[in-house]
Amino acid sequence: MKSQFLAHYTTMGPPSKVAVIGAGVAGLSAARELLREGLHVVVFEKSDQLGGTWKYDPRTDSDLLSIDPNREIVHSSMYLSLRTNLPRQIMGFLDYPFPDRDNGDRRTFPGHEEVFCFLNKFAEDFGLHQFIRFNTEVLRVERVEEKNDKWVVECRTLGSDSVSREVFQAVVICSGHFTEPRFATLPGIEKWPGYQIHSHNYRVPEQFRDQVVVLIGYGASAFDISRDIARVAKEVHMATRNPDVTVMKLGNYNNIWQHTMVKYVSEDGSVAFEDGSSVYADVIFYCTGYKYHFPFLETNGIVTIEDNRVGPLYKHVFPPALAPGISFIGIPEKDIIFQTTELQTKWVARVLSGKVLLPTEKEMMAYVEEYYKQMEKSGLPKHNTHYLHFKELGYGNWLAAEVGLPPIEEWREEMYLECIKSLTEMKDEYRDKWDDAHWNSIAKSTPFPQNG
Ligand code: FAD
């Protein structure tokens, strides 16, 4: 039964003012969709530019492990050589595609600069700049008097000591989740004498010249950064928990080895792997991912983060007890991010304008509990809660249907899965060996409708 918010909007009308936190992919898409629904939007952005992660910043956190809570934090984790891990055909929005290769960067998998330009053009074409308050950091979001349609947003503008407060009927959280590092625990690390860094603080390989680097991780960043560093480092030893890994020297390189996980590290600088081998290393490099982190959000324990599960969230977006006042965009991982983000924002905007109704709180909770039960049954750990490609390939189509859009063309998912396969198999140069002719014949994109 989809009724709880219809009754609310019949008496109160849809929310007049909506706060969006962040002006990255998620925040820009949210702003566009909320404006399309005729809502009053304020986007808070703590930096002086839009684009979020895609704005390359040569600075790093003041603590290269990003552990010190008082460190100076740099938001973006982009490194200079980064190219997208998905082809440009699936790096845009469904109704606002990424430019083809005739413009700018001619590669099918462009560099980060082109994605940044794309987002700026998107903001310009939809007139979004005027709704963004740059240099304004949200410090606190809290419900007023237990009402889901009254949220106080406290923020501070750069250079000012004063904190200002404003009340909104809804807050859409688009603050990103690739800034707060996650780590592997290594026995003996307290006494290990070498240099440690997390990929959040990696920009260029030069500092690793002639060094022996142990790099922990097996995701897209580990794949790219190991190759980037190997250009100057003496040796790169990749360590992973992946049980299927073959312990070996990589064929295409004379200085990259693949190992199982680090077993322990010692005071003499050595690093021992579970496969029985060991090396004396100068650097331990963590490509171990990121944690969800919303330091500004106060929900009195209604929304928690446990082992990287943000919950409870109905369809990774709405906490049932706080819906529709609070929503999260961009939580899903292992997914076609731009497309999913766009569909989530369309859904949230329609829910907030009253055009689309949510189930009751009880129904949404039941859904979440069943989802957790299914995960447990399949043996999936909590920290995989928001990984879509393991179990929710239909998620995008569910969102599309919810806002009255047709199903997403199948080639998009085929293309995505092909990239995941290349990454999982660690296929070097998959970006440059991509079969453009084949994919171009399949990916005949018909313009996706803007509205259902
Ligand atoms: P972000 O881009 O992180 O934007 C969040 C914004 O919120 C930032 O501008 C930040 O300043 C602002 N903000 C945060 N907190 C506050 C606050 N308290 N007050 C005010 N403003 C705040 N995706 C792909 O599709 N393809 C790729 O190839 C790809 N490669 C990636 C490579 C790396 C190294 C990383 C880290 C990510 C990559 N991604 C990739 C994922 C990428 O994060 C998403 O594409 C996308 O940028 C997520 O957008 P977002 O808006 O959710 O978050």
UniProtKB/TrEMBL annotation:
Domain of life: Eukaryota
Native organism taxonomy: Eukaryota, Viridiplantae, Streptophyta, Embryophyta, Tracheophyta
Species of origin: Bauhinia variegata
Name of protein: Uncharacterized protein
